[in-house]
Amino acid sequence: MNYRIHPLLRFTSCLLPLFIPSALWGVVSQTQTTNFSFNGFGSADARAQITCYQSASFQENNLQLTETGAVQASGRCLYNKPIQLLHSETHNPLSFSTQFIFFIQPSANSGLADGIAFVIAPTLGGVNGSSQGYIGIFSNETNGKSSTHTLAVEFDTYKNPEYEDMDDNHVGIDVNNIVSYAATSAAYRTSSYPTIQNANDGYAVLMRNAAVHVWIDFNASTNQLNISVSRDLGVKPTYALISNSSLNLSELFNNDMYVGFSASTGTLPTVLYYVYAWSFSSNGHLAANVSIVSENTSKGTRNIAIIIGVVLGAVGSVITLLISLYMYRRRKLLKLKYLSQDQWRSALQEGLPQEFTYHELAKATNNFNEKNRLGSGGFGEVFQGTIATSGVSIAVKRISNESKQGLKEFVSEVTTIGRLRHRNLVPLLGWSQEKGLLLVYELMPHGSLDQVLFNHPEQLSWDQRLNILRGVAAALLYLHEEYEQKIIHRDVKASNVMLDAQMNARLGDFGLARLYGHDVVHSTTNVAGTWGYMAPESFFTRKATEQTDVFSFGALILEVVTGRRIGVMIEEISCSMLEWLWTLQRNNNLVEAIDPVLLKEDKDSNDMIKIVLELGILCCFPDPKVRPLTRRIVQILNGETPLPTMPSIASPSSLLSPVAMPLFSESSSSFLAYKTET
Ligand SMILES: *[C@@H]1O[C@H](CO)[C@@H](O)[C@H](O)[C@H]1NC(C)=O
Ligand SMILES: *[C@@H]1O[C@H](CO)[C@@H](O)[C@H](O)[C@H]1NC(C)=O
Ligand SMILES: *[C@@H]1O[C@H](CO)[C@@H](O)[C@H](O)[C@H]1NC(C)=O
Ligand SMILES: *[C@@H]1O[C@H](CO)[C@@H](O)[C@H](O)[C@H]1NC(C)=O
Ligand SMILES: *[C@@H]1O[C@H](CO)[C@@H](O)[C@H](O)[C@H]1NC(C)=O
Ligand SMILES: *[C@@H]1O[C@H](CO)[C@@H](O)[C@H](O)[C@H]1NC(C)=O
Ligand SMILES: *[C@@H]1O[C@H](CO)[C@@H](O)[C@H](O)[C@H]1NC(C)=O
Ligand SMILES: *[C@@H]1O[C@H](CO)[C@@H](O)[C@H](O)[C@H]1NC(C)=O
């Protein structure tokens, strides 16, 4: 910092600031840019910059656009300062960009709701007489008039035939008129094809009962207005849902406009509209990325000592017997503390998903008819059904009454999964507790992976299997590293991997998941998981870690590649799948383990199959330190990173086989020896 400025230069640089503004004044007209970002609206700073009108208010960290209980009402929240959206001299429109996350909570009784809108309006304040289908944007006085100067993007979940709505889940551009200028069904676009014709072009985004992320970008140089929606928060679709370049905004806008949100209610008092986060930028920059802040997300679970139980994955009578003995011992050791009714009820209400009535769900599932039963699992039974009012297909999980432990898992599941959004997780729609505990999920049309894999292996090509494994790995990475709190799933297995319409994997069943703050030492009072998928060390460390999830995922890989169930003895040689694979590997004969229906495929696939199989073996390595990190697994499956070298397995019989695990007592010397090593 020891350079000298030439005296002359110093002189001019001192004078320069005096000259520049006045010199530019007459030449370049001033364009005001606006740039803001709110990840939540709880702060005094945010509340000072936004005003809520009519039925709208700030609620905790959110904007709530209509008052709880309000009927025939509307509300608006607007950014206080005017925004320049036309060039001062040319009056050409200027670019703008916005992102936000909204949540529509429909009526508890009917599942119905109206809509929410992003508005660009000429004045501050709300619009009187803008209830019901007007979404707080127009009234019958202002609708259809060019003097209204209002652009809105509506997210409408009610079909008003009188306003020419196409369906009850659409996105529309409204130009001075509630009859949309352009509209389309809400969807996540995966192709640029102008209409969504099949699964390759995109998939529906149901806008009720879920946080929905929206991107709206107007590029003035191309006059293109793009709108995208996604329920995978933070994941912007590659292609815009609506991309229209025919608007004349210079005609529509005034020089200064106000931006914000509006919503309205009709006769249903329990419908609520929330905005969780919002960013905006005018004149060239893209709006900042928004996310839901974690401020109160863990409040519901913080005080609850959730005690994790053991899920039975009943595979083979011998194993079941072993587990039963094991469980019996565990139970005796544990003193379970139960939550009170009130505690878990209030915990549930903190969760985002909607509360359904029992009546609604009974109607949807034909009174839990046997014909609607999809299956039964550790905690109870699952039924499929359709919500009569909305036509949404659902899977309802009825938690068995006997399972007292299920209560904690139920709370855990609702409060955990209710907040998670990822394209490879099963979305939880809601819950009911009137008559027993019920969880409501989006129905996954292809059922669970184990059903297809073990009953119709020929229906799963290698590409599909690889895609499924990549999906599960992506979900695990999200849980382990990308979500704000580290989540250990604890029960990764084929029957918890659901398949959506495009055969993408959706990891479900968070009954055993527990929330951790990152960097917290994890220790639980009980061991949890499903037979064959459980890492050997979890039997004595009683800790669920990323490495135990990786072990379970490894077991899943082995099932997907071999087409055999992990927990079942390999009959030919009567040993566990892992021992069998280790032997094959030492003999350089792994190809023998590959599901025969896969071997028909080309050489490139065969090479990848072998890599994935070895990855599975590595993930199931007894020493947790040898198992790859979740992030590494994702990279290997995507072909971005080679497989690490496999440590040699000198003598498999010296390693602890998970199947043999409960045969040892916990104080057995081999356990202790192993424990000190790790
Ligand atoms: C809207 O209604 C409120 C309350 O009735 C009233 O104070 C306000 O003047 C009305 N605004 C307009 C523009 O009519
Ligand atoms: C608006 O609605 C009110 C109440 O329904 C009605 O009295 C009035 O005539 C309507 N105005 C227009 C311009 O349609
Ligand atoms: C924009 O929407 C209008 C009205 O639906 C339509 O006529 C026009 O073709 C659209 N333009 C583009 C570029 O998509
Ligand atoms: C916003 O998120 C996307 C990923 O969805 C990323 O590509 C982009 O760089 C982010 N933008 C900013 C400004 O961080
Ligand atoms: C709008 O979407 C189209 C098609 O997805 C894309 O080509 C274009 O770059 C997008 N423009 C903006 C401003 O995002
Ligand atoms: C938009 O409207 C303005 C004012 O009516 C007009 O001068 C201009 O030519 C229009 N622009 C386009 C692209 O049609
Ligand atoms: C608008 O479009 C032009 C031309 O395609 C492009 O150069 C520019 O980067 C775009 N601006 C924004 C903000 O996307
Ligand atoms: C607006 O905000 C974005 C993201 O925070 C930032 O990248 C950009 O530089 C800002 N623009 C201005 C003009 O402040």
UniProtKB/TrEMBL annotation:
Matching SMART domains: S_TKc (SM00220)
Major location (coarse): membrane
Keywords: ATP-binding, Cell membrane, Glycoprotein, Kinase, Lectin, Membrane, Nucleotide-binding, Serine/threonine-protein kinase, Signal, Transferase, Transmembrane, Transmembrane helix
Catalytic activity annotation: L-threonyl-[protein] + ATP = O-phospho-L-threonyl-[protein] + ADP + H(+); L-seryl-[protein] + ATP = O-phospho-L-seryl-[protein] + ADP + H(+)
Enzyme Commission code(s) on record: 2.7.11.1
GTP-binding keyword on record: no
Record: residues binding ATP: 397
Signal sequence bounds: 1-30
Subcellular location, record wording: Cell membrane
Membrane-crossing segments per the record: 304-328
Domain Protein kinase: 368-646
Keyword Glycoprotein recorded: yes
Record-level GO cellular component terms: plasma membrane
Topology in membrane: Single-pass type I membrane protein
Recorded GO MF terms: ATP binding; carbohydrate binding; protein serine/threonine kinase activity
Listed GO biological process terms: defense response; response to other organism
Gene3D superfamilies, A to Z: 2.60.120.200, Phosphorylase Kinase, domain 1, Transferase(Phosphotransferase) domain 1
PANTHER family: PTHR27007
Family: In the N-terminal section; belongs to the leguminous lectin family.
Protein name: non-specific serine/threonine protein kinase
